Amino acid sequence: MKIALIRERKQPADLRVALDPQQAAQLAKMYPNVQVAAESCSDRVYSDDAYRNAGVPIIHSPEDFDVLLGVKEVPVADLIPGKSYFFFSHTHKFQVYNRPLLRAVLEKKIRLIDYECLEWPGGGRILGFGRWAGIVGVYNGFRTWGLKTGVFHLKPAYECRDYSELKSALSQIRPGAIRITLTGSGRVAGGALEVLNFMGIRELSPEEYLSGNDYNEPVFTQLTNPYLYRRKDGAEEWDSRHFYSNHAAYTCIVEPYLKVTDLLINGMYWENTLEPLFTKEETAKPEFRVKVIADITCDVEGSVPITLRATTIQDPVIGWDPVNLSETTPYTEGCIDVMAVTNLPAELPADASTDFGKSMLEDVLPLLFNGDPDGVLKAATIAENGHLTEKYNYLKDFVSGS
User: Fold this and answer.
1) DSSP code for 331
2) Mind listing the pLDDT tens digit for each residue in 210-263?
3) Nearest 5 degrees, angle CA 249-CA 255-CA 261?
4) Which of 32, 48, 397, 242 is nearest to 5 (CA)?
5) Lesser CB count within 10 Å: N end or C end of the chain?
6) Residues 6+ positions from 86 with CB-CB distance below 8 Å
7) What are phi and psi of 219, to 5 degrees?
């Protein structure tokens, strides 16, 4: 078997890789009959020389390789027929913008294994950059707050050499008596909590947060699903299984927190069957206190309806005018500033890649050689031999639609 790390071709360029140089070299040592190489690339976090120095050959085309490892979606024109691809395809949730990609995968008889669909036999995702999205998202949230208030200045996260430098920058700011609400409980929220705790920001229970007490220090609370949603029929006991199966039976109850929050960090998982955290019209109410939103979740007009579009690393913030209910220039008086960068982990590409590659090396790639006994790869294979697999056959009408 021949495995190649492919160059990221989607623009803007993503610097992350599926395996760092040492991990790619280790894969070759683990499986001596496997050839591992990296496609030449001038704009990733690890140079061609870094791979060469680790003993990983550099190739100029992956056409002769069997398994191709990327990160972001591969542009349709660059898909090579008949190959097995690993990447985040963003297709299995009916993402219309990637319908042409899924069609091309089928037409070119590609085996598509989506990282997002790789799950442990007992449930739960194996891979993801969620922790790093949470880490960088909180940093960007504070950076936006500093730019809005003029109280402190943080350089962009992508200018930090690594996570250590990012933490060093955060340790030098004094945010003042800011009140912060964090939503979510998964990997994204875990990364966000990691940073908030590192900064020494005092955590309050949701009940304490709403107590009406004034604090002369920064404080935050974390809202998990039971504090974000309530059953419309009034049932008080929280039932996670019922919630995930019956989103329409729940209403959002976050409004009281928005009346006492300055910075909202949104790290929750969201689907369009759930109510948003608030409506656009509610931002015009005098009691709506939120001034900055770090929307790590970044569902366009989703859980945060004033996330009108995903933003870029170079231009990360959009402004929302709550009077005219429209986009405005960020950091202007009276506006709400929304940081909605869609590829946050790419701002710390080396740390994020090494973390991701560790799981690839230990938990995913061995399944290519041991027969995939629990069907993990099979369950994450969206298409093969020109057909959707059984698990993803629900996408058939989507693929043929317009």
Assistant:
1) T
2) 998 889 999 999 999 999 999 999 998 999 999 999 999 999 999 999 999 999
3) 140
4) 48
5) C
6) 18, 67, 68, 69, 70, 113, 114, 115, 364
7) -135, 160
Residues 71/129, Cβ–Cβ less than 8 Å: no
* Residue 69 dihedral angles phi and psi, to the nearest 5°: -105, 115
- Report how far residue 309's alpha carbon sits from residue 93's, in angstroms, rounded to the nearest whole number: 18
Q: Is the pTM of this model over 0.85?
A: yes
Q: For CA atoms 330, 136, 72, 384, give the dihedral sign.
A: negative
Q: Tell me if 298 sits within 8 A of 265, measured CB to CB.
A: no
Last residue of a domain, one of 322, 342, 362: 342
d(CA 228, CA 223): 6
Residues sharing a CB contact under 8 Å with residue 130, sequence separation 6 or more, in sequence order: 186, 187, 188, 190, 191
Question: Same structural domain for residues 325 and 183?
Answer: yes
Do 100 and 200 reside in the same domain of the chain? no
| CA atoms of 198 and 134, how far apart (whole Å) | 13
Here the tokens at position 201 are 């920001």
Cis peptide before 12 (omega within 30 of 0): yes
Last residue of a domain, one of 298, 324, 342: 342
Residue-level pLDDT at 26: 98
> What is the bridge-based pairing of β-strands 111-114 and 2-5?
unpaired
What are the tokens at 101?
A: 């990609």
Burial label, 25 (beta-carbon count in 10 A; 0-12, 13-18, 19+): middle
| SS3 assignment, position 262 | coil
Q: Do 164 and 66 reside in the same domain of the chain?
A: no
CA 182 – CA 206 distance, rounded (Å):
10
Q: Cβ neighbours of residue 225 under 8 Å, at least 6 residues apart? A: 185, 238, 240, 243, 268
- The amino acid sitting at 162 is D
